[in-house]
Amino acid sequence: MTTCCGTGGMTGRGTGQGTALRGDDTKGCILCGGMKHELVSERDRHGGLLCTRLCAGCGLIRNDPVPTEPELDAFYASAYRESYKGASVPRRRQVWRNFDRTKRHMLTYRDVYGQGGRWLDLGSGSGEFLYLARAMGAEVEGVEPHEGYCLYSRDTLGLPVRRATLDSSGYDPGSFDLIRLSHVLEHMRDPLRTLIQLRAWLRPGGVLYVEVPDIAEEARNRLRGRLFHYGHINNFDPVTLRALAGAAGLVELGRTKQRAAQTTGLFLTAGATLVPDAAALARNAVTMRAIMADHAKALLPRPPKGTVIGRFVGRVHERLREAVTASRFRCHRAIAEDAAQSLQASLNAPLAA
Ligand SMILES: [Zn+2]
Question: Could you list the residue range(s) of the whole structural domain that residue 209 is in?
Answer without folding.
Answer: 88-348
